[in-house]
Write a structure and sequence with these properties.
Elements (H helix, E strand, L loop, with lengths): L1 H6 L1 H20 L2 E2 L13 H12 L4 E7 L6 H15 L4 E5 L6 E5 L2 E5 L1 H6 L5 H9 L15 E8 L8 H15 L5 E6 H35 L2 H24 L3 E2 L6 H25 L4 H28 L7 H31 L5 H5 L5 H15 L1 H19 L8 H5 L1
Helix pairs in contact: 2-9, 2-12, 8-9, 8-10, 9-10, 9-12, 10-11, 10-12, 11-12
Length: 425
């Protein structure tokens, strides 16, 4: 197999490049899904019940814009609040706005209840601004909802309507609400919160983490391979392998119609790290064969023959571990397990195919690097450790059992954190 691969290395590299371009485009267009649907257990009818609940009681797409000040209920502040209410109501995708200046209340006399607008009464001079604050603060419905009990905090409740397929509409709307709230000049503190805000922030945190940690992992891998091999080829081959494994996995993820969420975004560093191991093992075996005096093709054949089965077994066992997550009912965790397993096996495929192709096509590593992989004291110490373990099996089992007991004690102390946004900061 290795001889056939090396004889046709140019067509093989061209085919790998073509697939990489296709899947790379799909990876670049990946969507980010900050919604909760992927976190809902996929039991019979769970998602349908959520949609039915929302159709009966309204969507959870509600934003609260709150202001805190000692002078909220003055005529000037209320006029500013009324202007802000009208501006927010005119924004795209806003269904309705409830605020202290737009709320409708009921009054009555001997003829029955009469609907009134308290703010309009204040505008007409029938109600003082401070009295309006006291009325709303003590109201059984609006007190604590629109106005705090001390009348020093007031809020706009903004209900959104579903936007278009463009996933950016919510981000644009939340940014506009934050801008309008900051420019309103209504209080010493302004707060914008709600499920839509959380979704926008989660999407931003995911994109930020991908932009920070993926390059950071690549930098760490580059530094470690540079220290280990002290040659550009020794850096390029492992980095190319893990890069293509990641790009192909994310491309398949995108082509499958999936979107990154706080759980599935974790597969990126896992795939990078898990894909590196096999490449390092194969590269080390190749250099050890070269140190024995074998020519490049013979060294590649020997390294390939020795490592393809052990690397496959290692990748397969790791992939099976992640595939075990498919038994869980939460879609996000199942997608994470499935595509991480796919990424690990793609990493194995690139280790066995791409690594020999690159080693055969790139300049050979210099003698000083090859000599560093001759059997030495490290190998002899590792062999002695293996020998000690085989001779003292009982002690080894007891030591592992003790570590397992400590791990179980720590496992019982794990608690579930429901504040998703804070965990991503």
């Amino acid at each position: 197999m290795i001889a056939l691969l090396l004889r046709h290395r140019r067509p093989a590299l061209a085919a790998i490049a073509a697939v990489t371009v296709l899947l790379g485009w799909a990876a670049l267009t990946l969507r980010i899904d900050p919604g909760v649907e992927a976190m809902i257990p996929s039991g019979p009818g769970d998602l349908d019940r959520l949609h039915r609940f929302q159709s009966l009681f309204g969507s959870d797409e509600i934003v609260v814009v709150a202001f805190h000040s000692d002078r909220l209920f003055t005529r000037e502040s209320l006029e500013q609040l009324d202007r802000l209410t009208r501006r927010v109501a005119a924004l795209p995708h806003v269904a309705r706005v409830l605020s202290p200046t737009s709320v409708r209340d009921l009054d009555g006399d001997e003829l029955g209840p009469v609907p009134i607008y308290p703010y309009q009464q204040m505008v007409a001079g029938k109600l003082e601004p401070a009295a309006l604050g006291e009325r709303l603060a003590s109201h059984p419905i609006f007190g604590g909802l629109l106005v705090a009990k001390d009348a020093r905090t007031a809020a706009l409740i903004v209900e959104l309507e579903e936007g278009p397929g463009d996933a950016q509409w919510r981000s644009r709307l939340v940014a506009e609400l934050r801008r309008l709230g900051a420019e309103a000049g209504l209080g010493t503190a302004t707060f914008v919160a709600g499920i839509p805000v959380e979704k926008v922030d989660v999407a931003r945190y995911i994109a930020r983490d991908q932009a920070i940690f993926v390059p950071l992992v690549f930098l760490i891998l580059a530094v470690m391979t540079a220290i280990l091999y002290r040659h550009p080829v020794g850096m390029l081959v492992p980095l190319a392998t893990v890069t293509l494994a990641l790009v192909w996995t994310l491309g398949l993820f995108g082509l499958a119609g999936r979107a990154l969420n706080p759980v599935t975004s974790l597969m990126t560093p896992v795939i990078l790290v898990m894909s590196l191991e096999g490449t390092i093992q194969l590269l080390n075996q190749y250099l050890a064969a070269r140190a024995q005096g074998l020519a490049r093709p013979a060294a590649l054949a020997q390294a390939h023959a020795r490592m393809r089965t052990p690397c496959f077994n290692a990748a397969l066992t790791a992939a099976i571990g992640f595939l075990a997550l498919l038994v869980l009912p939460i879609p996000a965790i199942r997608e994470f397990g499935l595509f991480t397993a796919i990424g690990i096996m793609l990493g194995y495929g690139h280790t066995i195919v791409l690594t020999p192709l690159l080693l055969a096509s790139l300049p050979d590593l210099p003698t000083r690097v090859v000599r560093a992989f001759e059997a030495g004291p490290i190998e002899r110490r590792l062999c002695s450790v293996v020998g000690w373990v085989t001779r003292h099996r009982t002690a080894t089992v007891l030591a592992v059992g003790g570590l397992l007991a400590v791990s179980v004690a720590g496992l019982l102390r794990i608690h579930v954190e429901t504040d998703l946004v804070r965990s991503l900061r």
